[in-house]
Write a structure and sequence with these properties.
There is one protein chain. It is built from 24 helices and five strands. By secondary structure, it is mainly alpha-helical. Among the domains are: 75 residues, no CATH class; 269 residues, 3-Layer(aba) Sandwich (Rossmann fold). It has a five-stranded parallel beta sheet, with helices on both faces. Helix 13 packs parallel to helix 20. The relative contact order is 0.09.
Length: 497
Amino acid sequence: MGKRRVRATAQEKSAAALDLRGLSLAELGRHGEAAVHFERALAIDPRAAETAFHLGNSLLALERLPDAQLAFERALQLRSKYAGAKNGLGAILARLGDEDAAIVAFREALAIDPAFADAACNLGTVLLETGDVAEAARWFERAIELDPGNSHVYLQLVRSRSKPLEAARLAAMEALTARTNGLGRPARIELHFALAKAYEDAERYDDAFRQLAAGNALKRAELAYDPAPELSLLRNLQRVVDPPLLESLRGYGNPSEQPIFVFGMARSGSTLVEQILAAHPAVAAAGEIATFGRLTAELRPPIGTGAPLAAVGASLRAIGDRYLEATALIAGAAPRITDKTLANFSLAPLIHIALPNARLIHVRRDWLDTCFSCFATLFLGTYVPFSYDLGELARYYHAYDQLVTRWRAILPADRFLEVSYEAVVADIETEARRIVAFCGLPWDDACLAFQGARRAVHTASAFQVRQPLYTTAIGRAQRFGAHLEPLITAMAACNHP
């Protein structure tokens, strides 16, 4: 017995050492390596609830959502009253679009630990996305009471407001930002973006831009992003895909009319268009699922390599079939399903070949407003990496604009529709009817009553879309005047090399 206990203790120490090493790697942002250490620790000590929780956190940071969910559920099986794991599970459920279940999980975490500031903030965030602004604000205020130094709560609080922040709250944010120590880079970035929004709401545009410049510079510095390969790919797509190629590959794809692809630049108004469609009883909303891009990454043989067109066509047909299989659970019995993966703008011709009856909707917004709105948004993780430098932002936008202009010229007009964000805001009924008719659906008045609807859409725009339509976003960039000269100059250089 004694020897077995000593051996078990040694195993526990080994697992604890691996767990500690994993935590150190996670602190450095090396979540892939951290997850390996946590998995090894769990293999040695399968009863370690905290290690399962740590694994869930790293998998969440890696965007491995199903695996992260399993890790948090494992932690809860080992310790049912584990507030941190409940909070982690809630975060996964929210990202997967199950808002009701996420709200339950966050409330359960707070029932276990009423002083859990992160859970209070997360609960407020999901309530905000569902349109319950008043209760969301209460939970943000509660989170600040529990943790006055939590930068993320301030960012969420200002997002929830359409009027200037109270002087005391603004002063607290300013004091927190002024700290010279004890404030890590992620927290400082969040505070800069939060202050920028607060100053903009107060019409202090010079102060707002100074905060944006600081926050974007810090965020860009932490990204390992090289724009050259991406820009080269966008330019090469124009060269490879032409009308003769499209004609030669006609007839290979899956004929389903179910998919509707909505795409464009980030902050272009695509969420608004998707919500109009998602309110239709015949439409299911998938949000940003990136499924088609993952499937085309496996395209064999690739287009443009001289491979026989029949082989390419057969491969694209298989991709169309697999896409429909992958989205079947989300679509259910709905005749249509929307896919709002923005990056699909680059894949529009491949989508058309693989799914020739799919509708492609490109949402366009004034370029300066689009770019500035990107610059003013702190995106999740490494999403939209080109948005944190005005020069890179201009060059990416130019490449995107050239590509979608090309697609509009060569794709059939009954399959490719361009929608103006400004036109939708100016006359939503006319534009909504045009969009619904393009998708081959009968008109339904629900498409004008979509605001407040709860849908599985989690983007920087989701909250705004659930509010009454407003025109203040149109011409927003003009308020920042000369501060945007670097952006305008970079765009001019793209247009006149």
